[in-house]
Amino acid sequence: MQCVMDHIVLNVEDDEKMIAFYEKVLQFPTERLDEYRSGNVPFPSVRLNADTIIDLFPKKMWQASSRSGEGRENLNHFCIALSKETWQELLERLQADAVPIEVGPVPRWGAHGTGTSVYFRDPEGNLIEAKCHEEGQQV
Q1: What order of strands is seen across the sheet that includes strand 45-47?
Q2: Sign of the CA dihedral 120, 118, 15, 17?
Q3: pLDDT value at position 69?
Q4: What is the pLDDT of residues 56-103, one digit of tens each?
Q5: In this predicted model, what pLDDT tens digit does every residue of 92-107 receive, in sequence order?
Q6: What is the secondary structure of the chain as a DSSP string?
Q7: CB of 102 within 8 A of CB of 121?
Q8: Domain spans, the chain
């Protein structure tokens, strides 16, 4: 299966400290920072390259959903971007292998804009988002 990494999501305790680190130390440009600070989007992102971003989830987004019950899990989920056809084939395999889809299909924002996503877990419990974009939009 061919795909590219669309984004990863980090659960953060101190969003401003993390933004400053990724922006100033690693020199990753921020995305949606003004919108985040004004309350118009739920989280900011930093861009690694044309294909990949890191979303920085503030505490209010992850605190209530920690699977461990003991606090913060650092990696919230990772996302792979697929062509529409490959995404449909993956959905068929998930169903055939009795892998439950926890969320979706739903529209979600990522490195290539908004696409349609499903969320499911690997055998170790890691949350995976698989996303496709509209026809004609490159993955």
Answers
A1: 30-31, 45-47, 53-57, 4-11, 75-82, 127-132, 113-121, 103-110
A2: positive
A3: 56
A4: 988 888 876 666 555 566 777 889 898 999 999 999 999 999 999 999
A5: 999 999 999 999 999 9
A6: ---EEEEEEEE-S-HHHHHHIIIIIS-PPEESHHHHHTTSSS--EEESSSS-EEEEE-HHHHGGG-SSSSS--SEEEEEEEE-HHHHHHHHHHHHHTT----EEEEEEEETTEEEEEEEEE-TT--EEEEEE--TT---
A7: yes
A8: 4-132
pLDDT of residue 126: 77
Angstrom distance (rounded) from CA 60 to CA 42:
9
Among candidates 77, 72, 78, 53, which has minimal Cα distance to 13? 72
Mean residue pLDDT across the chain: 86
Class of domain 4-132 (CATH, top level): alpha beta
